[in-house]
Design goal:
heterodimer; A: 292 residues; mainly alpha; 10 helices; B: 710 residues; alpha+beta; eight-stranded mixed β-sheet; five-stranded mixed β-sheet; 25% helix; elongated
């Protein structure tokens, strides 16, 4: 967390990429809404709050647009997934070298903006290829997980209760199914994160060797690793809840109030990125402490 | 003595009929004795039906519904139409899942006519369909005459996916016995000549039957709980481990029952006490609205029985509250619920196909293990199915031929009652400022990675049962499918199930909401009069329209021709131009009549000229009111007959127009697109900016979620 705080510029970089890409993907929606509303007085209602009739009509009149828009979001998501993999190479490099002493003969001190950016660029240059390979391998794991829990486990569940008149066992198994899916995803996510740490810590290792290292590290210390995720996840959830309470009760009906709401939302998102990068920093710190 | 034994039931029925509450001389009287075999999933029964020819025709044959034969094989009309799907339930076609109805003996006035039976297919000629049975008679039934029909039969129940059948040891037994069709006299429901009305069982149709009395004895295992149409009169435990229960009900046109082991189900009875549930102020309100004598507005007490799964015991209060609200509000709107019993059945997991169904004094609901607090499930379905006690039960329209008369009026009614009982937006929870429908806990399928199937996640039956927005949600499916068929059409002839849904539910609801707005104060009297006048009878659409004309004093033929019989939609738009006329250029005549070139940049003081354009964009033609507001705060209401494709209103000498709106009183619930119903001089950009920024934030979160997988 301290490493993330000392490298706020890196956090802001992730945040900015996220914001810019989202703004670009959402841009067609602005013109679609504006075109549909035109001079209609429905716009007054929509500016004050939400209008179900308008949404109904918009869905009808812009059905093709909405289909394309949702596809654009998915493509945007995949693009950002890849971008995140590349950027994370820089972030892990920054966190791995954060405690280094100031280099002899001058140069930027660790934690300074120049040092952060320098390490960030160096990390991307060194590791982007291996991080992308790692992403490709991880997506196979994720695919298998989702296939199993969404398809196989669901079929088993249906078969098990095909003659039943009691929903409770099925209901709790559904919860369990979701819970196990989340847990498995977190495990894979942790393995990916610790593989990255291993790659940065041992730049000479291959991706596969680093996966073995990361997996062994995570499985051997599953409780502590998950505790780190859980702690930061709870902080993130608290931030979301605070924002939800704010958004629920803060009026958004004028230029000023909409602007304030948007700024608050961005602060929340910055905090979430901070926590996300904090979790990477924690992974680096934990790995180094165990390896030392 | 033997002859006397045959006559005894007739004599008893005659005595009972003399005490019938609303129909002194019903067309049909049933005495049924049936036994459930829970292992074989069969019901073996014997029935005696006394059927009266109430017409002036001599009737040469009898026709019966054998509805369960719809589930006999994959070639029946029902199965061909449904392809094994009904609502959200699916029929898998395993050997033990099929159902049928087999008559072993049929006698009319003691004469065995079993050999005369033959199946007919009046709707589609499908030779595999055995849902209508015809029995030619040795001699016609004379006008006013009666026959005694004795039938022994066995029903194999299907696995429940469409209203009736079993799941494990849960049984919902409906449409389960041979049942006479309706013989309509000339003039009834505007028939040109008398004849049987006995349609095959279709996917998109329900039922139609004569009112009568029912004396039904059901034998089930003693460790099973049971509930049925009517009141339980007595029970008798037998040495073989079974118990016989006798139920009786008069003035209804159907009988259904359910049974399930006591270890799985609870049966709870509470009294709806009208004096406690309805306030004097509420009675006064409906006195004023309907102009009804005070005694006719008062409700009666009802014994409500809840047959609920044990695992849903924490929802008992929700079920009772919904049932009580329904009895109260439907009663105030349309006249008291006239029976003294009501049973609400909660089908179990796996038996959902039995849910959401109406039978006289007996309705099936449906819930899940852990529904959201504001989900309005089971409440919505209880209110809707109870509403059918009025629209199908008491006013017995022909559901085969005019489904909108019960489903449409009842959908409209359900929305009104939900508004009163639970508030207009009860089912919504605001999430980040956007109203999102309440959901059952974790009723979400897991999508496939990479996110295939996300579109199938039920983010919400976004519009279901929510009165305020419901109008517009209905408007969405109305707009998508309303042109495919007309409301007044045999339901099985509709283009597809989506079109049936629109013509039977969505469009009628929007039509009635529009009619309500157009008739204003007269509407409560109109709809109540229709209900009261046609109780225990079989009206058709013409009877409804005649009631509207008579009670409101308005000829609404123009409205019904377009909404009930037409396939067009309602869609108008408005826009305007306003401002000063152009600068003077060119030659203008002077005082002496000579052309004179206007000086350059001449702009003498001229009055503002404005023009409002109203356009008709679809087929429906409604009288149009336009509300025009001017910069000085003044306003004008102008009117157009709405016939031609467009018209213009010109205003000179008034200030600039600020805004114009058609249908300013929001009467047109049928209007497809409302955004272009208003126009203002300056567009409000904040709406697009604000929602764009929201989309940015939502997409930021989505992108963050994606990045988790990198």
């Amino acid at each position: 967390m301290r490493a993330a705080w000392r490298n706020k510029a890196v956090v802001s970089l992730f945040f900015a990429c996220n914001l810019l890409l989202a703004a670009a993907v959402a841009a067609p929606m602005h013109s679609a809404i504006a075109d549909h509303l035109g001079h209609s007085m429905m716009a007054n209602e929509l500016a004050r709050g939400f209008s179900a009739p308008w949404l109904t009509e918009f869905q009808l009149a812009y059905a093709h647009f909405l289909k394309g828009f949702s596809i654009a979001i998915v493509y945007g998501g995949i693009l950002f997934l890849l971008l995140n993999a590349v950027l994370s190479a820089g972030a892990f490099e920054v966190f791995a070298r954060a405690e280094q002493a100031k280099p002899e003969g001058g140069g930027p001190a660790p934690g300074s903006l120049r040092w952060s950016m320098h390490a960030f660029g160096r990390g991307i240059g060194r590791f982007w290829g291996r991080f992308l390979r790692l992403t490709a391998i991880a997506s196979v794991f994720y695919y298998v997980l989702f296939w199993f829990w969404a398809s196989r486990a669901a079929q088993f569940d249906r078969w098990l209760f095909r003659h039943s008149v009691r929903e409770a066992p099925h209901f709790y198994l559904e919860w369990l199914r979701w819970g196990l899916l989340f847990f498995c995803c977190f495990v894979v996510n942790a393995i990916v994160d610790y593989t990255r740490v291993a790659l940065v810590a041992h730049p000479d290792r291959s991706t596969l060797a680093a996966i073995g290292d990361g997996a062994g590290f995570v499985v051997g210390r599953l409780g502590r690793v998950m505790a780190i995720y859980l702690g930061l996840g709870l902080l993130s959830a608290l931030a979301v809840l605070a924002y939800a309470a704010f958004a629920r009760f803060f009026p958004q009906s004028s230029v000023i109030t909409v602007f304030i709401w948007f700024v608050v939302a961005q602060i929340l998102l910055w905090m979430r990125w901070f926590l996300r990068l904090g979790s990477w920093g924690a992974a680096v710190a934990y790995y180094e402490s165990r390896s030392a | 003595m033997t002859r006397f034994r045959h006559l005894l039931p007739l004599i008893l029925l005659a005595v009972i009929a003399a005490h019938a509450k609303y129909i002194p001389d019903p067309i049909v009287r049933y005495t049924i004795d049936a036994r459930l075999d829970p292992t074989a999933k069969t019901v073996a029964g014997h029935e005696t039906i006394v059927w009266r020819n109430h017409t002036s025709d001599a009737i040469p044959d009898l026709q019966f519904h054998l509805y369960l034969n719809a589930f006999k094989n994959s070639y029946t009309t029902f199965m061909r139409e449904s392809r094994g799907r009904h609502r959200q339930s699916r029929f898998r076609g395993r050997p033990d899942e099929w159902g049928y109805e087999q008559i072993s003996s049929l006698k009319v006035d003691g004469q065995d006519l079993t050999a005369n039976m033959r199946f007919i297919q009046p709707d589609d000629g499908n030779p595999y369909d055995q849902t209508v049975l015809e029995v030619p008679l040795p001699k016609p039934i004379p006008a006013g005459g009666s026959v005694s029909i004795e039938i022994a039969w066995t029903s194999k129940l299907p696995r429940v996916f469409a209203r009736t059948g079993f799941q494990d040891n849960f049984f919902l037994v409906g449409q389960w016995f041979p049942k006479p069709g309706v013989y309509e006299a000339k003039g009834e429901r505007h028939r040109a000549q008398g004849g049987w009305n006995c349609h095959q069982f279709h996917l998109n149709t329900e039922f139609y039957a004569d009112y009568g009395t029912w004396d039904v004895t059901l034998t089930v295992p003693s460790d099973f709980e049971i509930a049925a149409t009517g009141r339980l009169r007595h029970e008798h435990t037998q040495p073989d481990g079974t118990t016989a229960y006798n139920f009786y009900q008069e003035d209804v046109h159907e009988f259904a029952w359910t049974t399930q082991p006591r270890s799985q189900v609870l049966k709870i009875e509470r009294m709806f006490k009208a004096a406690e549930q309805v306030t004097p102020a509420e009675i006064d309100e409906w006195l004023r609205k309907t102009g009804t004598p005070p005694d006719e507005v008062k409700l009666q007490d009802v014994a409500v029985t809840l047959f609920i799964q044990r695992e849903h015991h924490d929802q008992i209060e929700r079920h009772f509250r919904a049932a009580f609200e329904a009895i109260k509000w439907f009663g105030l709107m349309y006249g008291k619920y006239p029976y003294d019993v009501l049973t609400v059945v909660d089908p179990p997991y796996g038996g959902e196909g039995a849910g959401g169904m109406e039978y006289p004094t007996f309705i099936t609901a449906g819930t899940t293990y852990w529904p959201g607090a504001n989900k309005l499930s089971p409440e919505g379905v209880i209110l809707h199915e109870f509403g059918h006690q009025f629209w199908y039960g008491l006013v017995g329209n022909n559901e085969f031929e005019e489904a909108w008369l019960d489903e449409g009026i009842n959908t409209y009614s359900t929305g009104k009652v939900l508004e009163r009982a639970y508030g207009p937006n009860y089912q919504y929870e605001p999430v980040f400022g956007v109203p999102v429908p309440a959901q059952p806990w974790l009723d979400l399928p897991i999508p496939r990675y990479p996110w295939k199937g996300i579109g199938n996640i039920p983010v919400g039956q976004y519009w279901e049962w929510v009165p305020l927005e419901q109008k517009y949600g209905r408007a969405k499916i109305y707009a998508e499918d309303a042109s495919d068929d007309a409301m007044e059409r045999y339901a099985w002839l509709d283009l597809n199930i989506a079109s049936y849904g629109v013509q039977a539910y969505a469009k009628p609801e929007l039509t009635l909401r529009t009619l309500e707005a157009l008739l204003d104060d007269a509407w409560p009297k109109v709809i109540r009069t229709f209900q009261q006048r046609w109780r225990f009878k079989h009206p058709d659409a013409i009877d409804f329209m005649d009631t509207v004309r008579e009670v409101s004093g308005q000829d609404m033929k123009w409205f019904f021709d377009q909404t009930v019989y037409g396939t067009g939609m309602l869609n108008y738009s408005v826009s305007f131009t306003t401002g000063e006329p152009p600068a003077e250029n060119g030659f203008f005549d002077n005082v002496s009549g000579k052309p004179r070139l206007a000086p350059k940049e001449s702009r003498p003081q001229r009055l503002v000229e404005s023009e409002v354009l109203v356009r008709r964009l679809d087929e429906m033609q409604f009288p149009v009111t336009v509300l025009v507001k001017f910069a000085d705060g003044s306003e004008v209401r102008d009117h157009w007959d709405g016939q031609y494709r467009w018209t213009k209103f010109k205003y000179t000498g008034r200030p600039r127009i600020v805004s114009a709106r058609i249908d300013p009183d929001f009467q047109w619930k049928l209007e497809v697109l409302r955004t272009d119903d208003s126009y203002q001089a300056q567009p409000v950009r904040l709406a697009a900016d604000k929602w764009y920024l929201r989309w940015v934030v939502w997409i930021q979160n989505v992108l963050m979620a994606f990045s988790f997988f990198s």
